[in-house]
Task: inverse folding
């Protein structure tokens, strides 16, 4: 049997730096645990634009459709800010999500004990925090038509469309309820049903799906209140289900509760392929971080944890994923820190590769 | 000359309780400072629905258009959750905002020294915090057409439209730049220009308006990053300008940084009327709080501070507004607390009217 295939798309900025570290972890699993992958690598985002004039070449898109899982670093950067919207680096990422139909974006917000002191929030509010946000990722205002900027009465008008079908809401809801069943059986759905009809449909469909998961305790919350409650008392949440745009904002808000964005992985899952594995892409929640690019300062943990999620959700290797997570807990408990985990911009911690060295040693 | 006119719309839940306290403050200004208002009162939200079958009667709407300022409590509550969207209590509030054309919603997030310990965030991150969010309030996805739930291929589809004209973005931007000029001349504009064309137009128009305010330091931030930065290091911000939906979420997030939603007022301002005063409505940021309604537990400070904003922005009585704010600082420094400011749900502080007693004594 051939090895499972992985397509690595480092993208831009620190995406490239942290992905180099993930390759070291992948190599470790080959050498020490006899777990092998067929790894290929390609361009996405600004890097792809520089070479091909498009943030995602059709050949890359085709490859992504064929592999067992995609690992993506980060896209974008100030060099591309003035590009035309249609070729912005972000379009590459959005095209991958849309064409692979990765509708369920899993964003854990977990606070490692050793880092509880580092959160903006008081320690008692975040110690032991473990939230899973399930964000719908292929629809909503990110993709709805009509969209664009046009002239009306000699004036520019900017338009985007929030559009959700009941099927789109439902399949994401099932992913969220399934997740809740594996965890503490508590799900909170967030929308703005008080001002948006798409939010009313969201609430109705989630309530209908609930009938198939009677054991799960379901609640509904307006997204503005959700943002507030995440800051006020985040431990009240276990699984949160929300739409593409609210999920973007709320998951960044939740991410920050854990102390560092440099710690947080994500998985974007679609329907099962012929081999039974879900279509899948894994990426750190952080961006390309132009301010620290090229300085060896980036924290590779989010990207390494994204690979751990791949082991768990694509390759049925939950034990190996847990092995990585335990190694990371250990190095954090030992006090190993990249700069982002030190709170003081001037303190120098270990380098990007120094962090990986420590993790490999602990594995 | 006749007295300036105030229309009081207590609305639902604790809206009615806190507004009763504001009337005591208004009476105090008449008795002690010889500042008089012609006060009338009417129904809005669920209370109006119960009586008239609509959350805002046309007569009430007409009155709101005539007075010098409207004071609103809060709308909504679980009794109205299953109402048809078109008569939900929130529709009353949104109709007021839209028909009065109150495009600039000012939402201060200020942390009173005496309460810095009470925030979810570490004290050093919030002590002295003083942010002003300017939220566009009459357009965007709250009002865009087409909207609704319809059938397509035998499936329900929920649609809302984010729609901004350059004129709408511009007038709000001018309000935000004017505010920045009165404060520390720093403005951060937030959108999702990386995924939404309406966000690109937003960024472009704000940049164009900047030409008229060369002294202001302008920055742009994606709204997801904005949510994160508000939690990470809120003091980096002074004035924030954002759209209706992002403003809803980000201002609730910012509000929570200050410790209690029971503390935060807001002003919604429109164009100048014939008498030179802006069309204006003032309301606390908190909602109708059904969980504590009728128990005398509500904190009246947000609503009293909303009246102070009315004194400042509608009636050119900035000194009197400052007098109220100073009185509130004093009672907080003296340790007077409603339950929401005590952190422990079981600790009983002063009652709603007890808090007002203390404020009036300090005035
Ligand atoms: C880079 C950007 C297009 C993206 C998004 O808005 O979805 C990012 O913020 C994310 O959350 O993955
Ligand atoms: C009550 C609701 C319609 C309203 C809004 O969404 O604008 C509220 O959340 C607010 O922020 O004033």
Result:
């Amino acid at each position: 049997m051939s090895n499972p295939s992985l397509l690595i798309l480092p993208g831009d900025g620190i995406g490239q730096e942290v992905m180099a570290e993930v390759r070291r972890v992948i190599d470790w699993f080959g050498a020490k645990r006899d777990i092998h992958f067929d790894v290929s690598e390609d361009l996405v985002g600004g890097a792809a634009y520089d070479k091909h004039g498009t943030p995602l070449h059709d050949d890359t898109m085709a490859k992504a459709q064929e592999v067992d899982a995609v690992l993506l670093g980060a896209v974008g950067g100030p060099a591309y800010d003035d590009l035309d919207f249609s070729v912005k680096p972000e379009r590459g990422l959005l095209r991958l999500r849309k064409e692979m139909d990765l509708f369920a974006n899993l964003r854990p917000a977990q606070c490692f004990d050793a880092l509880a002191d580092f959160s903006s929030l008081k320690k008692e509010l975040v110690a032991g925090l473990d939230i899973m946000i399930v964000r719908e990722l292929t629809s909503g205002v990110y993709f709805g038509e009509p969209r664009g900027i046009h002239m009306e009465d000699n004036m520019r008008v900017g338009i985007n469309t929030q559009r959700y079908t009941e099927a789109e809401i439902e399949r994401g809801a099932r992913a969220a309820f399934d997740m809740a069943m594996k965890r503490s059986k508590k799900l909170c759905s967030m929308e703005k049903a008080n001002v948006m009809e798409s939010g009313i449909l969201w609430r109705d469909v989630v309530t209908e799906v609930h009938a198939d998961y009677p054991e799960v305790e379901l609640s509904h919350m307006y997204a503005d209140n959700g943002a507030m409650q995440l800051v006020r008392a985040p431990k009240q949440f276990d699984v949160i289900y929300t739409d593409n745009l609210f999920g973007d904002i709320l998951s960044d808000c939740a991410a920050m509760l854990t102390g560092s964005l440099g710690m947080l992985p994500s998985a974007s899952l679609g329907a099962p392929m012929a081999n039974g594995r879900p279509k899948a892409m894994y990426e750190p929640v952080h961006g390309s971080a132009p301010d620290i690019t090229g300085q060896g300062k980036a924290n590779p943990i989010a990207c390494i944890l994204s690979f751990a999620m791949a082991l768990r959700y694509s390759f049925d290797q939950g034990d190996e994923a847990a092995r990585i997570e335990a190694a990371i807990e250990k190095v954090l408990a030992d006090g190993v820190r990249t700069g982002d985990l030190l709170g003081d911009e001037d303190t120098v911690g270990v380098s990007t590769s120094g962090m990986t060295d420590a993790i490999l040693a602990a594995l």
Observations:
- Chain B touches chain A through 62 residues (CB under 8 Å).
- The mean pLDDT of chain B is 95.
